[in-house]
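[SOLVED] Need 3D model of a two-part complex

Original post:
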Amino acid sequence: MPALTQLSATELLAELSAGRVSSLEVTQAFVDQIEAHDQKVGAFLRFDGAVALEQAQKIDRRRAAGEQLGKLAGLPVAVKDLLCSRGEKTTCASRILENFVAPYDATAVAKLKAADAVLIGRTNLDEFAMGGSTENSAFQKTRNPWNLECTPGGSSGGAAACVAALMAPLSVGTDTGGSIRQPAGLCGVTGLKPTYGRVSRFGLVAFASSLDQIGPLARSAEDAALLLEVIAGHDPYDSTSVDRPVPAYSQTVTRPLAGLTLGLVREHFGEGLDSEVEHAVREAIKVYQSLGAKVKEISLPHSKYGVAAYYIIAPSEASSNLARYDGVHYGYRTDEKGMQAALAAERTRLESAGDRRAIDELDSPLVRLYRRSRAEGFGAEVKRRIILGTYALSAGYADKFYLQALKVRRLIRQDYDAAFQEVDLILGPVTSSPAFKIGEKVDDPLSMYLVDLYTVTANLAGIGGIAFGCGFSADGRPIGMQLQAPPFEEERLLRACHIYQQSTDWHRRIPTL
Amino acid sequence: MSLSRAEVERVSLLARLELSEAELTSMTEQLGQVIGYMDLLAELDTEDVEPMAHAVELSNVFRPDELRESYPRAEMLARAPHADGEFYLVPAVLGE
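Solution:
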């Protein structure tokens, strides 16, 4: 038998429920893997092996006592440090929440606990999920397990890296503009962004509320189905979660899928697409064709406006959502005495200079407390987005930017609705190139934003998408592809990914650490 | 269009952010590029398009108005940087 860390979540669950292996043994294997390699990878912000093993032992005892256990009983699951977990730190990879202890569980976390999962650790991310490389974490870099000089993508970079590095069989991420699918593609794992409303956002620290969605990262569609089945569903605490039954994804994922028509978006195969990526995606299309799928070229004429619309809407919502970090209610606060002294000195200086206007415009102590606490607590990218969003919503600009972006959002959704009249799924690349180097794009926000070209439109339209590996570059970096489906067709996404993974073995490749 | 340093400074007050001189410089330049890119949207005629604020276009979602326990005050105030057991404390707002 291969090492326990190499088994899929589905296989591990079968071993666990048959009593052939204990949760303690399984958890120990992943704990060992983290302890051996996370120094290099940096996927976890916080990890406590003893706490994980204690949870595992508890589940083993309950199993031995013949108790009815949950769907993920004894299986380790990693959680992005953006979801509240009662009594535990939830930092969002931000200084402003460095010492914040969540007072309640996010619904997704509560569901994992109810399913008897072993919560093995909290994964790294771009601060407040803003970024595509995990370099915006205030605490540490995460490295791509396939090439340690490269980023794992982001914002769920830790979530993707820990699965690729066999440090957890399942992990929970979030996707606002591609933050599950892009790192999944760059790390060669399987990541699903559900339809907006499929998973409750309660207790997910908000970035852009109309776009945020929680979803699974795993080594295969079959494993992702297990996790999605546990976290999906209506929640009275999130009025935007949709009240419709949750399919038995873990059962239906293996059902055959015949007669598929796949749409290839003309605009996705144009200029800017790396030739190795294009080649791998075209090979994947051949695999689907060999399985009987029909392929049809389609157009999403407004997709080229996706990044522009997204980078108005998401920062606008963020500027409002992040107003809650004020140095008063919770989180970081600047040194008040120092702030007061600096303000007094400023006033004295302006008075001796006789600058009446500047004195009138001087911040009040409360305003300065807000401004300085936020200045010291937020990192550069978060500040950029707050300024961008505040600007896009400010008097004189709201119509030109925010309202126009919302109208373009409608056009993008209409493009999808029309396309799905003709095809069952849309197939394409998830990023235009494989993983980029750490530091390569940090000082060039626009080029970082353009990485999201193929992913943001699904969030704007609210539809689901799944990303998974379909090859490697000549130098060994994973290449990802994406399928997108009409709203609430997660089963179709999972099944289509599964039939591909049954015919290929990209998803079984393991990086050497 | 582009973005001026004075505009970034004005917006930083609206956003309750303090920006250093260096940040003002880099942000004016970087956001200028980003805003310039947004001009792309202006080429679309959206006169008759209804804005879409949300993917799931729900209107009012009602629930029964039932009394429920709230989070204990002490537990919430314990997370505040400065509180007196009853209130959040901030610098004096009124009067000199």
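Edit: Chain B touches chain A through 50 residues (CB under 8 Å).
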